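Work Package 4 report. The design task specified in the project plan requires that, given a folded chain encoded as structure tokens, an amino acid be chosen for each position. We show below one input record used in the internal validation round.
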């Protein structure tokens, strides 16, 4: 279920032709070098006795296929190949589609290099298998990297939209971006890490409320940069220094008592000065 949920996450399509072109060139150079070093597709048995030229041909084929799919097709089908509805799952299928196209043209090209071409289904399946084997793992790495960068940029974007006045609202977003909390900053008491989740303790009138979000506390910390009263005090805790009722301990490490909360919240030694400064500001 988690994997299916991950596949449904929004994913950035190639936002402009320049970005797509740069990626295409990188892929083509990689394929050329790979073919020259590892000699796949029976390069050594070719009638052309020039491995560098043959390898360049495979890179050029990759360039042509990628240009068609990543630059031309988005212009032909702008309503389909767009950021608005693109997901991780669609990107994965899109990559496989491109790799199958590269494999098809590589298969034709490779057969033209032999004295006795074999244009049969089995030989294409072999070429497609090795093409996907070579290209899919780097593609998955790129997908994971771009997805993590997208999440970070969205968190930063939300952080920038948050006002810097004491009456602002904190927007807390789950890691899958589906669950969101909008809580007035002056009502937040404590944000704590709880395994794969974040516990948010806040006031509603005279009552204490708690909400759960699936996220990392470090992600939420970045989104709260605009709120100087919300301070990281421990690897597991962010507190609202305006809600500190009492302190227990000294500069070597202490605990704080917050409104509505019975348990004391520890303050790590490395955060004592930051908490003290924030409390005095």
């Amino acid at each position: 279920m988690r994997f299916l949920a991950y596949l449904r996450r929004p994913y950035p399509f190639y936002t402009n032709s320049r970005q797509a072109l740069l990626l295409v060139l990188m892929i083509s150079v990689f394929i050329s070098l790979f073919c020259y070093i590892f000699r796949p597709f029976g390069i050594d048995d070719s009638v052309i006795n020039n491995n560098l030229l043959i390898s360049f041909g495979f890179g050029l084929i990759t360039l042509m296929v990628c240009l068609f799919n990543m630059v031309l097709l988005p212009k032909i089908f702008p309503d389909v190949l767009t950021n608005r509805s693109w997901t991780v799952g669609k990107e994965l299928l899109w990559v496989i589609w491109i790799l199958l196209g590269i494999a098809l043209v590589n298969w034709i090209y490779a057969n033209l290099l032999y004295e006795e071409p074999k244009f049969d289904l089995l030989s294409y399946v072999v070429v497609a298998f090795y093409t996907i084997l070579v290209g899919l793992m780097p593609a998955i790495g790129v997908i994971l990297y771009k997805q993590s960068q997208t999440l970070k940029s969205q968190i930063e974007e939300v952080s920038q939209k948050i006002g810097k006045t004491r009456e602002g609202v904190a927007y807390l977003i789950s890691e899958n971006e589906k669950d969101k909390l909008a809580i007035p900053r002056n009502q937040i008491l404590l944000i704590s890490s709880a395994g794969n989740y974040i516990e948010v303790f806040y006031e509603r009138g005279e009552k204490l409320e708690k909400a759960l979000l699936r996220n990392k506390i470090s992600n939420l910390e970045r989104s709260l940069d605009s709120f100087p009263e919300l301070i990281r005090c421990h690897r597991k805790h962010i507190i609202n220094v305006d809600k500190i009722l009492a302190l227990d301990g000294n500069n070597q490490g202490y605990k704080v008592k917050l409104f509505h909360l019975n348990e004391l919240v520890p303050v790590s030694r490395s955060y004592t000065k930051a908490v003290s400064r924030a409390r005095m500001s």
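The beta strands are 169-173, 180-184, 188-194, 197-204, 207-214, 230-234, 237-240, 244-250, 253-258, 265-267. Validation will be extended to a larger panel in the next phase.
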